[in-house]
Design brief:
Layout: H1 6-11, H2 16-19, E1 27-35, E2 47-52, E3 55-61, E4 71-82, E5 84-89, H3 97-103, H4 109-125, E6 128-133, H5 138-149, E7 157-160, H6 180-189, H7 197-209, E8 215-218, H8 237-249, E9 254-258, H9 261-269, E10 274-277, H10 283-292, E11 295-297, H11 301-311, H12 317-339, E12 343-344, H13 360-367, H14 372-378, H15 381-387, E13 404-407, E14 423-426, E15 429-433, E16 438-441
Parallel strand pairs: 1-4, 5-6, 6-7, 8-9, 9-10, 10-11, 11-12
Antiparallel strand pairs: 1-2, 2-3, 4-13, 4-16, 13-14, 14-15
C-alpha cells in the first residue's frame, strides 16, 4: 500500500492515531535489516531504532524486543537510512508545463495551493522528508510549511525562501514579457524585484518580514526565464553583497541562482552560502568555492528536464537555446568541480522536473563521478549542514528528528534503489508502508 488509511491500519492491528496520525508518548521500535545511520560511515547490520515523541531515543545493535505497549515496525528485510533532503525545489510548480502555461491566467492562489499540497505529499512519499523551497509565493509557501509542521497536511519539512530576489528584467522578474496591463499588476506585487544595493536590502527585509527562512537571489540569467537575456551575470556585485549581508544580519543563509562563470564568481566573492546550478563553473571558480568554503547544489536533473520540455514545445521559445547551452556544459563542469573537491549538497530543482522523481538525481551524480555513498551523504549529512540543521537532521542518532526511510536493497551498491522507497517516517509518523512484513503493538 502506498498511503496508510484507516482500513489498512486496522488490518495491521493499529489505530490511526497510534502510527499515522497524532503523536502519543509511547515508543515505536523500528527493526532494520541493515542500517546506514550515519551516511559516510559503514552501514550497520540488524539494528533497532527506538523512537519517542517524534525523535530518536536510541539506536541499538540487533533486533531488540520492544517494551510493553510499544509499537513495532518490522523492516528486518530492508535497508534503512535517514530521510533524504532536497536543497532546491519549487513545491508550487505544476508538473504539466503545457497545462500550466495555458491556465496560468485563470488560476488563483487557491488553485496553486492545492497543486502544492499534492506535490508535497508525493515528495514525502518519495522519501524526501525535508526540502528547501527556493522560489514560491512567500505567503503560500509559509502557509504550506506551517500546515505540514502542525500535521494538517502531509509533506516534508519545508525551509522556505519565498520569492527569489531579482533585478528588473532579470531571472525571477515576474513582469518579463507580459502585456503592459499585466506588467503593471506584476510590478505592484513584485516586492522581490530590486535595483541598486539599498533597494536590494529592502527586498531581503520584505521576504524575511513575511516569514522567509532562507534568501535566494538570481545572480545570472536563467534557463526558464521568458526573456532572451542569456545565462551570464545580471546583478551587480554590490547588489549581491547587499543581499547576502542583509540575510546574514537576520541569521539567514543566502543561495545564489548562478549559471554563468562571471555570476558564480561575483556571488562567491560576495560571501554567498551556496551556488545553485553552477553550470559554467571552471578551475578558477572551483578554487573560489574552496577558498570561501561555499557549497555547490548542482541540480543535474533540471537541464535534462528543461531541454526535453523545450524541445516538446512546453516552454517559451527563448528557453530552448538556453536549455541547449546549459545542458551541454553542466555535466562536464560539475564532474570537474567534484574532482577539485568542491563541497556538494544534493538538490534537484524539482518543479522543473516532476515532483516525486527527485531521487533520479542520484544516478546523475554517480554518473558524473560521485560514489553512491558520497551522493547519499550529500542528501543527508551535507544537506543538513548547509541548512544549518545538522543538530536535528541528516543522521539517525539520539535526539534527532525521527526522519527515516527504507528501501529493498542497499543503495550503496545500487543507488537507483532510492527511486523506489518503500517506507517513510517523518518526525516519528509513518506515511508510507510498502512491503513491510509486520507493524503491531507489542504485548
Amino acid at each position: 500500500m502506498r498511503l496508510i488509511g484507516r482500513t489498512a491500519l486496522a488490518a495491521l492491528g493499529l489505530g490511526l492515531a497510534s502510527l499515522c496520525g497524532a503523536q502519543t508518548s509511547s515508543a515505536t521500535y523500528v527493526h532494520a535489516g541493515a542500517l546506514l545511520d550515519r551516511p559516510g560511515q559503514a552501514p550497520r547490520g540488524p539494528s533497532t531504532i527506538i523512537i519517542r515523541d517524534g525523535k530518536v531515543e536510541a539506536v541499538r545493535d540487533g533486533l531488540t524486543q520492544p517494551e510493553a505497549g510499544a509499537r513495532l515496525v518490522d523492516l528486518g528485510n530492508q535497508f534503512v537510512l535517514p530521510g533524504l533532503i532536497d536543497m532546491h525545489v519549487h513545491i508550487f510548480s505544476d508538473d504539466d508545463k503545457m497545462r500550466a502555461r495555458l491556465e496560468s491566467s485563470t488560476r488563483d492562489v487557491e488553485d496553486n495551493l492545492l497543486i502544492a499540497v499534492d506535490n508535497a505529499r508525493r515528495t514525502l512519499e518519495a522519501g524526501f522528508t525535508t526540502v528547501r523551497d527556493l522560489g514560491s509565493d512567500i505567503h503560500s509557501v509559509t502557509a504550506l510549511r506551517d500546515a505540514i509542521a502542525t500535521g494538517l497536511v502531509q509533506g516534508p519539512t519545508i525551509v522556505a525562501a519565498g520569492r527569489a530576489i531579482s533585478i528588473t528584467g532579470g531571472h525571477g522578474d515576474g513582469a518579463n514579457n507580459l502585456n503592459r496591463d499585466l506588467a503593471v499588476l506584476a510590478r505592484e506585487r513584485g516586492t522581490n524585484v530590486c535595483n541598486g544595493a539599498e533597494d536590494c536590502r529592502r527586498a531581503v527585509r520584505e521576504q524575511i518580514s513575511q516569514g522567509a527562512d532562507v534568501i535566494k537571489f538570481t545572480a545570472t540569467g536563467g534557463v526558464l526565464s521568458n526573456v532572451a537575456g542569456g545565462l551570464n551575470q545580471q546583478m551587480f556585485a554590490d547588489e549581491m553583497k547587499a543581499i547576502i549581508d542583509t540575510a546574514h544580519l537576520f541569521g539567514r543563509k543566502a543561495a545564489a541562482h548562478a549559471h554563468g562563470k562571471d555570476g558564480i564568481q561575483a556571488a562567491l566573492e560576495a560571501g554567498v552560502d551556496s551556488i545553485e546550478h553552477g553550470s559554467f563553473s571552471d578551475a578558477e571558480t572551483n578554487a573560489l568555492f574552496k577558498k570561501h568554503n561555499t557549497w555547490l547544489v548542482p541540480t543535474l536533473l533540471a537541464p535534462v528536464a528543461a531541454l526535453a520540455q523545450a524541445r516538446a514545445g512546453a516552454r517559451p521559445a527563448p528557453v530552448l537555446a538556453k536549455a541547449e547551452e546549459s545542458s551541454r556544459a553542466h555535466h562536464a563542469n560539475f564532474a570537474a568541480s567534484l574532482k577539485a573537491g568542491v563541497r556538494i549538497a544534493f538538490g534537484t530543482d524539482t518543479g522543473v522536473s516532476s515532483h516525486g522523481q527527485n531521487a533520479q538525481e542520484f544516478a546523475l551524480l554517480v554518473k558524473a563521478g560521485m560514489s553512491p555513498a558520497a551522493a547519499i551523504r550529500a542528501a543527508t549529512v551535507d544537506a543538513a549542514t548547509l541548512l544549518g540543521r545538522a543538530e536535528s537532521l541528516g543522521t539517525i542518532e539520539p535526539g534527532k528528528e525521527a526522519d527515516i526511510i527504507a528501501v529493498a536493497a542497499s543503495p550503496l551498491e545500487d543507488v537507483t534503489q532510492l527511486e523506489r522507497v518503500r517506507f517513510v517516517m517523518h518526525r516519528g509518523v509513518v506515511h508510507k508502508l510498502d512491503g513491510v512484513r509486520q507493524a503491531f503493538p507489542a504485548p
